């Protein structure tokens, strides 16, 4: 096989180190004694450090094809380690720490890792909860003492004599490059197998569809996305924040990093868009250097997007990206176009997530829980018909790791490459734009009326959210006399001056005005919705449904 048929994600770092060795690659913000400090590394030094680590990992016993759990906070070591793993053909396993102890143990057991590379706190948890005890052969501690087991990374590097550039392992495009576990919005976490082809496709999209170029500086708040910075010749600026809990971030730290490095790009999830927008507006700030803002992870509210745009220069947009770990990005839409769809969204038309990015095919199929083994073009539904969103493209994953049933449920085989069932509902309009209508698992197929009717979470909730007293709402299903009945849980901005009876009567009138909501007559006020801590936009409707059932019984 010739060299051009091989690939490896880390080749982009090597190219950047050759083309602009002295340019900033990574800067990490830290708070010490009430003062912000910054650790910096250029492309040449980052490349050489990752070479040294790759040599050291091999000398320590790790080899191409091995799998290594990586639990290291965003830092210079995180970047050097990750690129070293790619160079050596060792598969990094990245697990969202926000998924909980039980799920973490399950994920690690599933992948049967050869190595565990983590900060001391991660090793303490590994020992206490027995993560990977029957599989892990190599334990490496990063950024602290190795008291809790494992050899320190510093010690491994010091014992390595190799000083030469590391001969990057050449891999085929469809070889496994990484395994990514995210907490997910429904079901147990699954390991998404990333190939080098997927990473290459994502880099191409970021260059072409998002227009990211060398010399830019990105304020990166999500570890995986931050890796694309050096691969694109763009500096990744890492703020002092807990990436698994963005809503706890200090806006002043983020603003300080943006201003210090004149960041041109900001990647932020909806929770941060809301947090930074409110903080920036209260300070009458202008983020003069930003040329684009990318929001992903969950749908941001139109009000938070509108608020954040006041911090930006005229013409600078917030680009909302739709996708999932299995397929990212699928589509995008700029804030100017998105804000023009407000009336449609408020009337129950779903949320517009824009046109598919280059190379991505989006289709809508009938809603079904059945497995679909083979793709047929006649599965596609016509424009404006709501169904399950299905995508195909080079950045779409082909399988889950060691989860055959989950792969069969989510993938539809085709001649070119598999289609992925997103688990989301939506429709395509006559122009080919995609509109989101919520998770498939969150729809309510009701039979409480004379005719069966399906209610979709986003259209229904956005209609009711137009009421000025409502902060957010959540559609759930309850059983009444054996019949599936829609019920709306409500969280208020504050204690309403009007009675619950008056509020519910007003909501009943709103429901009767729209085909999407007619038949919804049950409402309950909840003090504070259970939300995911990362996005602060994903409501745990399953918990609310159990709560609602109990309220009706009581």
TrEMBL record:
Q: Which Pfam families match?
A: AMP-binding
Would I find Ligase among this entry's keywords? yes
Q: Please list the GO terms describing molecular function.
A: ligase activity
Q: Which CDD domains match?
A: FACL_like_1
The answer to whether keyword Transport applies is: no
Task: Print the keywords alphabetically.
Answer: Ligase
Matching InterPro entries, A to Z? Answer: AMP-binding_CS, AMP-dep_synth/lig_dom, ANL_N_sf, ATP-dep_AMP-bd_enzyme, OlefBLtnSynShew
AMP-dependent synthetase/ligase domain location, by residue?
16-401
Listed name of the protein = Peptide synthase, AMP-dependent synthetase and ligase
Say which species the protein is native to: Psychromonas ingrahamii (strain DSM 17664 / CCUG 51855 / 37)
């Amino acid at each position: 096989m010739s060299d051009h048929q091989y690939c490896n994600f880390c080749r982009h770092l090597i190219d950047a180190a050759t083309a602009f060795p002295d340019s900033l690659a990574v800067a990490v913000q830290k708070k010490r004694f009430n003062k912000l400090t910054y650790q910096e590394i250029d492309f040449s030094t980052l490349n050489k450090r990752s070479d040294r680590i790759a040599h050291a990992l091999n000398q320590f016993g790790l080899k191409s094809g091995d799998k290594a759990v990586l639990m290291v906070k965003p830092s210079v070591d995180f970047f050097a380690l990750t690129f070293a793993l790619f160079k050596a053909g060792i598969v990094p396993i990245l697990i969202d720490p926000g998924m909980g102890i039980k799920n973490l143990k399950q994920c690690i057991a599933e992948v049967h890792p050869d190595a565990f590379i983590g900060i001391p706190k991660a090793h303490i948890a590994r020992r206490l909860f027995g993560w990977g005890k029957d599989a892990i052969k190599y334990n490496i501690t990063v950024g602290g003492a190795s008291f809790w087991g494992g050899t320190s990374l510093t010690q491994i590097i010091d014992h390595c004599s190799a000083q030469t550039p590391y001969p990057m392992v050449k891999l085929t495009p469809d070889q496994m490059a990484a395994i990514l576990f995210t907490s997910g919005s429904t079901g147990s976490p699954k390991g998404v197998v990333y190939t080098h082809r997927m990473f290459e496709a994502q880099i191409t999209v970021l260059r072409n569809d998002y227009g990211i170029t060398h010399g830019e500086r990105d304020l990166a708040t999500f570890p995986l996305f931050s890796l694309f910075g050096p691969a694109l010749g763009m500096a990744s600026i890492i703020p002092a924040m807990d990436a698994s809990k963005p809503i706890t971030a200090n806006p002043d730290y983020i603003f300080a990093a943006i201003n210090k490095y004149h960041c041109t790009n900001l990647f932020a999830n909806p929770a941060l868009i809301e947090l930074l927008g409110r903080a920036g507006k209260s300070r009458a700030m202008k983020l003069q250097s930003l040329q684009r803002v990318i929001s992903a992870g969950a749908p941001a509210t139109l009000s938070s997007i509108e608020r954040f745009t006041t911090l930006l220069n005229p013409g600078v947009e917030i680009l909302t990206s739709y996708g999932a770990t299995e397929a990212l990005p699928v589509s995008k839409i700029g804030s100017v176009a998105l804000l023009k769809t407000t009336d449609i969204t408020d009337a129950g038309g779903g949320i517009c997530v824009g046109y598919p990015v280059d190379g991505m095919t989006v289709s809508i199929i009938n809603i079904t829980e059945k497995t679909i083994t083979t793709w047929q073009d006649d599965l596609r539904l016509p424009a404006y018909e709501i169904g399950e969103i299905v995508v195909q493209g080079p950045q779409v994953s082909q399988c889950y790791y060691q989860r055959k049933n989950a792969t069969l449920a989510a993938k539809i085989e085709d001649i070119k490459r598999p289609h992925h069932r997103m688990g989301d509902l939506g429709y395509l309009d006559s122009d080919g734009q995609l509109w989101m209508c919520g998770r498939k698992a969150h729809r309510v197929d009701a039979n409480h009326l004379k005719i069966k009717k399906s209610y979709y979470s986003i259209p229904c909730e956005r209609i009711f959210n137009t009421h000025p007293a409502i902060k957010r709402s959540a559609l759930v299903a309850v059983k009444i006399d054996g019949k599936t009945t829609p019920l709306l849980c409500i969280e208020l901005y504050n204690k309403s001056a009007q009675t619950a009876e008056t509020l519910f009567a007003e909501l009943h009138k709103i429901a009767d005005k729209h085909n999407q909501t007619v038949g919804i007559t049950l409402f309950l006020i909840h003090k504070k919705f259970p939300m995911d801590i990362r996005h602060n936009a994903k409501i745990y409707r399953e918990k609310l449904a159990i709560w609602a059932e109990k309220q009706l019984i009581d």
